[in-house]
Design brief:
The chain is built from ten helices and 14 strands. The protein is of the alpha+beta class. Helix 1 packs antiparallel against helix 2, helix 1 packs antiparallel against helix 3 and helix 7 packs antiparallel against helix 8.
């Protein structure tokens, strides 16, 4: 059994149709979508968590500041309150701080240089007396803290902070995360391709094997079973199918050979004389027509000999049909030995033979061959030690000199043979000689 070798998973001209590439792209698409969704969710969660942390920090700082300015508010010490606000302004991202009396009047105020102008701040109507309230926008947050002294509500502290630093931190973190995600996707692409090349190697081998078989029609190859998994079982079934196809192909080939042999045998039976082995009359008729057509197309000289054995009836009557058959076989062998390789010698039936002589250089070549043939048949012939008085009489007709079609050429050679019989047998005559007679 031929074991199928490892194959290249990127066949030439088929990279765009590679199963490995398609699965890698699909896996990377799913992975990228998942990571981007995760990135978006984590980024959003990070933003809200960081903002809540800043809000909590701002609320705690505002509460501490409110406790510090409460006595100053009670004793109406605006300078001390302003100094306290200046100390509090060292807090990063601080935009503005306002202290209001319980009646809503502005008591102390601080804002960052260059900060965006903000209108007068007033406590929201829903501000609780004992709890702080924080509001946020896209760019800043505001913390409203009640100022209390010994449990008595004496005013309101308002702190406004910028969220720009938080934005920059989140953007920086997002950029780093995006770079890490891109690096992870690149590494995943290489890893997925390597893993899938290894995992899909058996399937690619099966595909390549099928392609080779479609080109070579060689079903003796087998695919290698790499693992005992679904692909391994598929490979086993594929190999079983190949084995059955190979057996079926061998049986079919053997059957076709037998039918071809039988057809050739039937062809021989239909076109060959069973006694002498020479072509028979049916074969002669087809060959005569074919050679006439070729000679007419090529403008070549062609001849036909009609041969009749002399004294054959005497041999049959005196020595029996078995001896007659032996004589026919020997005569056929002798005549076949003197003709050219391109000539066609046929037995028409009984003691009659015909010889097709295509592509003759001249008429003399045919006459010389007729004389050699007569001499070969007239040579002493013995069967069971008895001399057989056998000879041959030949009629010779030429195409296109004597006739232009198969029937006329055969009749012309037949008339020439009878003219030779009348001339004394064991000789030949041409068709023109028969016309003169």
């Amino acid at each position: 059994m031929t074991e199928f070798p490892a194959v290249d998973l990127k066949p030439p001209g088929a990279a765009g149709d590679s199963l490995v590439r398609r699965l890698t792209r699909l896996n990377l698409l799913v992975l990228t979508a998942t990571m981007l969704l995760t990135f978006a969710l984590v980024g959003t969660a990070t933003w809200f968590v960081a903002r809540d942390r800043q809000m909590q920090s701002a609320e705690l700082s505002a509460q501490l500041l409110a406790n510090s300015v409460a006595p100053m508010l009670v004793f109406v010490d605006a300078d001390a309150a302003h100094s306290e606000l200046q100390s509090f302004s060292r807090r990063s991202d601080l935009l503005e701080v306002q202290v209001h009396t319980s009646k809503g009047a502005l008591f102390a105020h601080w804002d960052a240089a260059g900060a965006a102008p903000h209108g007068p701040l007033a406590p929201p109507p829903q501000l609780p007396r004992h709890d702080s309230v924080t509001t946020t926008s896209a760019q800043a947050l505001e913390v409203w803290v009640p100022v209390r002294l010994k449990g008595e509500h004496v005013g309101v502290l308002v702190v406004r902070e910028s969220l720009q630093s938080l934005h920059r931190a989140v953007l920086l973190l997002s950029g780093v995360a995006a770079a890490l995600i891109a690096l992870a996707i690149w590494a995943a692409a290489r890893g997925l391709r390597a893993v899938q090349r290894s995992a899909l190697a058996p399937l690619v081998e099966l595909s390549d094997l099928a392609e080779r078989m479609s080109r070579e029609h060689n079903y003796s190859r087998r695919a290698k079973v790499h693992r005992r998994d679904e692909v391994g079982r598929l490979t086993e079934r594929f190999n079983d199918m190949l084995k059955r196809i190979e057996i079926w192909q061998a049986d079919l080939h053997q059957q076709l050979e037998q039918e071809q042999e039988a057809g050739q045998h039937l062809h021989r039976l239909a076109h060959c004389d069973s006694l002498t082995g020479l072509p028979n009359r049916l074969f002669f008729q087809g060959e005569l027509q074919r050679h006439l057509a070729h000679s007419a197309h090529a403008a070549e000289l062609m001849a036909l000999m009609f041969i009749d054995l002399d004294n054959f009836k005497t041999v049959n009557d005196e020595h029996g049909h078995d001896t007659g058959d032996a004589v026919l076989c020997e005569v056929a062998r002798r005549m076949a030995g003197v003709v050219r390789a391109r000539d066609v010698l046929c037995r028409l039936g009984g003691d009659e033979f015909a010889l097709i002589l295509p592509a003759l250089p001249d008429q003399a070549a045919a006459e010389q061959l007729a004389r050699r043939l007569i001499e070969a048949v007239r040579a002493p012939l013995r069967v069971d030690g008895r001399l057989m008085p056998i000879g041959a009489t030949v009629g010779l007709a030429f195409f296109p000199l004597d006739a232009g079609d198969p029937g006329a050429l055969l009749n012309a050679s037949d008339r020439a043979m009878y003219a030779a019989k009348r001339a004394g047998k064991n000789t030949y005559r041409r068709a023109r000689d028969a016309q003169a007679d």
